[in-house]
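User: These chains co-purify. Model them together.
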Amino acid sequence: MSLCVLHIDDDENDVFLLKFAWEQAGLPHRLEAVRSGGEAMAYLQRQGEFADSTRYPLPSLVLLDLRMPRMNGLEVLEWLRSQPQWQSLVVIALTASAYPDDIARACKLGANAYVQKPGTHDELMGFLRALQSFWFRFHEFAPTNWQAPCELTRPELQP
Amino acid sequence: MNVRSRGSGYLVAAGATLVAFGIRYVFSPILGETAVYPLFVLAVMAGTYGGGVGPGALAAVSGYLLADYFFVPPIHVIGRFNSTAAADLAMYTFASTITIALVESLRRVRQKLEADIAARRTLEGQLQQIHAELEQTVARRTAKLIETIHELEMLSYSLSHDLRAPLRAMEGYARMTELKFGEGLSPEARQLLQRIARSAGRLDALIKDVLTYHRTASEALNLHPVNLEALLDELVSSRPELQMAQASFLIERPLRNVLGHEALLTQALSNLLGNAVRFIEPGKRPQVRIWTELLRDGPARGERVRLNIEDNGIGIAPNDQDRIWGIFIRLHPDQYGGSGIGLAIVRKAVESMGGTVGLKSTLGHGSRFWLAVPAAPADLTAESVSVKSTAVSSQSAGTATMAALLKPQTAQPSRL
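Assistant: Joint model of the two components:
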């Protein structure tokens, strides 16, 4: 089953590099990227340019940067979890921030995992392998409405 | 003594003499010519106590005049004595002098004491004021310090965010260029690209390590019994860098349980094990022996457990053995890499658990690093400790790695 992953990140480089790593890893899933919280809301509500559902399929997994100008990732997350449709959407906070408050708040607001942005291409590939072997198969075995516990991944312990 | 109190001293002397005279006068029908002076000696005493030598002398003289005029025969005449009266007068003079001397010295002692007490009261007041000021200063400085620490923390977090972003990009683009266009490039150009990527990656690792060090240093500690065997098993089986090295780990069971902080212990042990397999001659297979021993340092420190990690690596020269625990110390920067913070983190982590670290090494013949931490209380059986530490690790996910992402629900590695 081909899934769609929505990457929400204001950092052009990170979007570009994730896309490249995605192709390198040969993942059979789509990766769409939006550059702000506002765009993410428009995408998920199929507003404006995102009305075309074949061009912009709804995601089953979101990679969410927390530190973004204007609407930040935590606000996006709060909005997502307030929408009945997106209660069980898998949201992984993928952010450079290791600020404990950010981690705690992301988990409290219902992120499924908190991952500090991989610092190198190899680490990024490792992260994608982890996505592939667990989170992409999440829908196969997780009961509906099941909330994955938030894994507090300590940044320094990541590969 | 000021003028007013001196004047009041003379008044006291005069009053006392008059009172003495009055009493003696009232009793003169009974006493007749005997016991003329004792009451006047009392008046001298009162006068001296009230005002010092002057008033005392006044009381003595006026007492004599009154006594001689009214009570010593011949009455109403001053200065003519029989032999008894002369003896009485001599006695009176002597008694008055002694009284004045004694009472005066008593008075002086009292005055000195009073002065001391007053001085002390003043000092106490000043002391209280200084104390209050000091408390205020401490409170103000503490608040400022907390603010500074908070700012520093914020700075370190935003550093990790802002500094690392361009580094990620640098490393990523260099790797991308190499992977995408590497075939069209000369080997030298490819090598240069790899150098860019490696340098950026190393700086990124360095920043991460500095943040880890900072966090280790400021970690609030809650010590629990920790099952070292379980912890080491998990480390050895889950750490990619330990897998890659083809290393063999010999864990001499049973290991003793310790009282520590699981995340900090994990951090320290993973750094030590990483070093043990990393610093080895090329081509040699790392062999790491791990065992514990119980240290009894006497009742003051209680029982402690020393965990030894012995490798067959390159060893450390005696001159370097102290300084390797410092921050940013790398003995072999080119050959073996690393940020130079690993052992500083180990030491910080162990010391914040109340433990100590050390090493024994011969250059070329491997090293034995050890850490000593408090032993877990003896009444906790290994089983209950194991259950507890399992619960802790799955709850707090303090040791969660990407491996935890892969198998977060099923990850209960076999223990014991």
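Residues 381-416 of chain B have pLDDT under 50 and may be disordered.
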